[in-house]
Amino acid sequence: MIPDVQQEILLITYPDGQEEAITRLSRVGYDNAIGYLNGGFESWATAGKDFDSVERISATEFEKSYQTEKPLVFDVRKKSEYDSEHIIGAINVPLNEINEHLAQFPKDRPFVLHCAGGYRSMLAA
């Protein structure tokens, strides 16, 4: 998460993905996109620049992982959503508070970020 919503943001997206990225950022209060990398993410990767990736898994894949690997699960929904129902053992770290809890995320083992539809967990990642 970007702690300051007024911070300028330079986007690196997949080809033709900049408009969608700007729209999605705007929906959560980030209106300071100053531009985007020409050629998108592919030009960044082709130039040999470093990048991280996030794996998105299905509910079925999660169920298998949950039963065999026992990953830590962080629920990034609002507290009220978490209180209503949640995955047993999940730790609630609301998306808007995630920067305050970064030390909780392990660097040496897999963990899962969970929300209702996938959008907030991808932002958290």
Automatic annotation (TrEMBL):
Start and end residues of each Rhodanese domain: 67-125
UniProt protein name: Rhodanese domain-containing protein
Phylogenetic classification of the source organism: unclassified sequences, metagenomes, ecological metagenomes
Xref: Gene3D superfamilies: Rhodanese-like domain (3.40.250.10)
InterPro entries: GlpE_sulfurtransferase, Rhodanese-like_dom, Rhodanese-like_dom_sf
Alphabetical list of PANTHER family matching this protein: FAD-DEPENDENT OXIDOREDUCTASE, PYRIDINE NUCLEOTIDE-DISULPHIDE OXIDOREDUCTASE
